[in-house]
Amino acid sequence: MAAAPGVGKSVFALTLAIWAGVPTLYISADSDAATQYARAASMITGHPVAMVQAAIERNEVEHYDAAVDGARHIKFVFDSSPSIDDLNRQMLAYGWVYGQWPQLIIVDNASNIYSEQEGFAGLEEVMDWLHQLARKTSSCVVALHHVTGDYETGDIPVPLSGLRGKISKLPALVLTANRVFGEPRLNVAVVKNRSGLAAANGSFGTRLGMDLSRMWIESKLPAAR
Q: Entry's Gene3D superfamilies (predicted)?
């Protein structure tokens, strides 16, 4: 999933991790533990994230600790620049401890993964490793990524060509996101989909209700008709 900074892709990923309720390994290279705690507590309780942060500063977090305990199926890694070898060790450690692979692996962001190769070649190496990881573990692997400068305003749909580094060859599904001007909504476009509908120009997708003050993104599908 690719989007401009501040659009809500990390909140989207955490929403997926929390409400999916499956064993999850979350590589949080872009956000530290305090940030993820505040986001999760706000998301689960519905309290504004500013209220959660104020409670943290007062050391009055018992209520939020109890709420966040409901997301204990997620195991976080907070290394800011892990290498592929580091992540291999994290995966092996997870397998040894829990006797299974995580069903969901989130990498936030792909560009934070250290590679000895630079630029595009480094990103390609990371995406190739994630592709192999999904095949070998049968996990759903979700990588967050940045967009090119033309789309960094965050308020226009991002086409497949808007991914920074053009790393769209290996993923089976590529989503892009942007804010909807004048509305509290997140536009999620399906720009690549090996198993279904997509539009590379960003014209096909859905709009989800969003309130980032409470870390809320609509997560229910509409009723079938």
A: P-loop containing nucleotide triphosphate hydrolases
pTM of the model: 0.92
Write out the two tokens for 128: 């190739």
Residue 192 within a domain: yes
CATH code, domain carrying 92:
3.40.50.300
Residue 225, in any domain of the structure: no
- The whole domain housing 150 covers 2-217
- Does 223 map to a domain? no
In a domain? residue 222: no
Q: What is the pLDDT of residues 80-132, one digit of tens each?
A: 999 999 999 999 999 999 999 999 999 999 999 998 887 788 899 999 999 99
Report the number of distinct structural domains present in the chain: 1
Among 217, 140, 220, which Cα is nearest to 180's?
Answer: 217
